[in-house]
Amino acid sequence: MDTRPHAPLSPAPAGDSPHGDAPFAGTVLITGATQGLGRHLALDLARRGATVLLHGRDRSRLDDAAAEVRAAAPTVAVRTYLADLADLDQARDLAARILAAEPRLDVLVNNAAVGGGAHPARRDVSRQGHELRFAVNHLAPYVLTRGLLPLLAASAPARVVNVASMGQAPIDFDDVMMERDYEGLEAYCRSKLAMIMSTFDLAAELADRGITVNVLHPAHLMDTRAVREYGLTPAVSIDEGVRPTARLITDPALAGVTGRYFDRFTERPAHAQAYDPAARTRLAVVTDELGGRVRTAVGGGAADVRDEAVADRGARPGG
Question: 99, 156, 204, 259: which has the highest count of C-beta atoms within 10 A?
Fold first, then answer.
């Protein structure tokens, strides 16, 4: 496991994506697409010509987001998938339904997240009893990404883009579930560092498989519900986060670039724990245990996996 930071890429020009609003014809799955960054990103990509797969956990909000995207880009395909990522079984089922229904997947954007919360002293848990922010912000993307690897591999070159944060805090491996001294924003920051660490490991695992895996902090204090719920004052518009995220999805200059953490357009080091081999190994063990040891083979035919999913579930996308 190479845990050293990469030599940084040349920074993109300040203030804008070097790839602008160029057309993009790939199929992109965006989790957490009913509001905030996910919704704005879906609109941006649809206007470029992408096939957009929208995930959400509320049917009404999901249908509303899909209607807005279709109105903005009437000629593009928009499909919806309903799942509550606070339940890892639903994350697995989401992957199975996508494998069964979609012919290809060029980009997976793991954007859905739980922020610091309106009641940060309250420790909430997931369906499986895991600390909620660790479950939704780290375990669910891990489970979903693992489940979708056959389709991503069959669609290669493909990309995984993980939406993290500059807010990062070291994981206490003696209290991963934060049963002591709980605070919501601290839990959020730990979960986002976990996502970054897993990004680096998966990128190394998938090297030479045609799937790149990168992670970014899109913008500081975007005007989102999560920021406002915690009592913070938004500093920038959501569009400030769309552009660097869209760059990781669409920019041909980033083809083959993998295992990197970006602060908006610029590659920067993440928290020091992200480069600690022992910490990365411990996190991988914890993640496998809590996530159900999801290990999906890459390199076989995604069609076989889709056939099994159809036989087992008969599931089709909503919307």
Answer: 99
Computed on alpha carbons and rounded to an integer, the radius of gyration of the chain in Å comes to 18
Confidence check: pLDDT of 313 > 60: no
Q: Is the pLDDT of residue 57 over 60?
A: yes
What residues are annotated to the active site? 188
pLDDT band with cut points at 50, 70 and 90 for residue 118 = confident
11: preceding bond cis by omega (within 30 degrees): no
The order of strands in the sheet holding 261-263 is 78-82, 51-56, 27-30, 107-110, 158-163, 211-217, 261-263, 266-267
Please list the helix, strand and coil fractions of the chain in percent, rounded to the nearest 5, in that order: 45, 15, 45
Rounded Cα distance between 165 and 270, Å, is: 10
How many CA atoms lie less than 13 Å away from 51 in the CB half-sphere? 10
CA distances for 270 relative to 86, 161, 173, 290, angstroms: 26, 16, 19, 24
Token pair of 223 as six digits: 């005007």
Q: In this structure, what DSSP letter does residue 131 have?
A: B
- Which candidate, 143, 188, 140, places its Cα nearest to that of 164? 188
Distance CA 210, CA 155 (A): 9
Q: Does pLDDT of 10 surpass 60?
A: no
**What is the pTM assigned to this prediction?**
0.87
Q: Can you give the three-state secondary structure of 95-126, one letter per residue?
A: HHHHHHHCCCCCEEEECCCCCCCCCCCCCCEC
